[in-house]
Amino acid sequence: MDFVRLNVTGLATYRGREGQLSFILHRLTGLGTLLFLAIHILDTSTVYFFPSLYQHAIEIYRSTPMMLGEIILVFCLIYHGVNGARIALFDLFSPGKWIIPIQRRSVVLTLAISILLWLPAAFLMGRSLLVHNFGF
Amino acid sequence: MTTQTQSLNPPPMKNTNRFEVTAWKWMRYSGLLLIPLAWGHALLQDVLVGVHRIDLDYVAFRWASTGWRVYDFALLAFAFAHGVNGLRNVLNDYVKSEVAQRRLSYILLLVWIIISLIGAFAIIGGVGSD
Questions:
Q1: How distant, in Å, are the alpha carbons of A72, A75, A77, A79, B112 from that of A28?
Q2: What pLDDT tens digit does each residue of chain B (130 aa) get?
Q3: DSSP 3-state percent helix, strand, coil across chain A (nearest 5)
């Protein structure tokens, strides 16, 4: 657990500002999405291997905690995609722009684009949660 | 203020490992491809259709079209490989011993192959009957 402590205290003391924030968000959103993806491949595979279990898996996804998790998952997907595109495009097409002032601005822009893309999706999924689970 | 304009690029590496160079490129190319693939999938299934309208019949209806099976197969191949290699990159930041890194890589390779095969069987096999 040493590395966890190192990261938590490092977060408070390193002060890497925007770059460090995007690094941490990219890793957390990526690892979260991977965890979901592994589970999702296995539960969807039940349609072939154990079809009677699939309905049970879907019931779990329809529960309120899972639907809230789904809204978070979509943010993870959007942020990881927008930030990943930032990394890939700078790396592949203009590596010379890996300069602190440019990157500080691009990190903020990345976060803004992600939130703007996420809000309408979160609204639609939140409405679906209220309609199906709370009778609105 | 000189540090403000300092380049963030690390100096070019000597003895570059060819596998790592390929993996580095793979993360970028597959990542760009996954933006339409994964976003399209989540937009359709999570936002527009919604989990309350998904059941066995819906999966059967969707997989009746070869196009959607190919789409799901591409998603399985690219997303899970991208994710497992990403996990390998993260772990390599914390596990410093080369022996342990090698062991972890083989474990991840095995996990990746098994879960990918399970998913591939399901996409090819389609909706089964109990």
A1: 12, 11, 11, 10, 20
A2: 444 556 676 666 665 788 999 999 999 999 999 999 999 999 999 999 999 999 999 999 999 999 999 999 999 999 999 999 999 999 999 999 999 999 999 999 999 999 999 999 999 999 987 6
A3: 90, 0, 5
Task: For an interface test with A, give the residue of B43, B47, B82, B112 to mutate (most A CBs within 10 A).
Answer: B47
Structural fold of domain B20-125: 3 helical TM bundles of succinate and fumarate reductases (1.20.1300)
CATH number at residue A112: 1.20.1300.10
Write down the domain spans for chain B.
20-125
Domains in chain A: how many in total? 1
A55 contacts B56? CB cut-off 8 A: yes
Identify the DSSP state of B13: P
Residue of A nearest to B36 (CA): A81
Of B31, B42, B90, the CB nearest to A27: B90
**Coil, helix or strand at residue B7:** strand
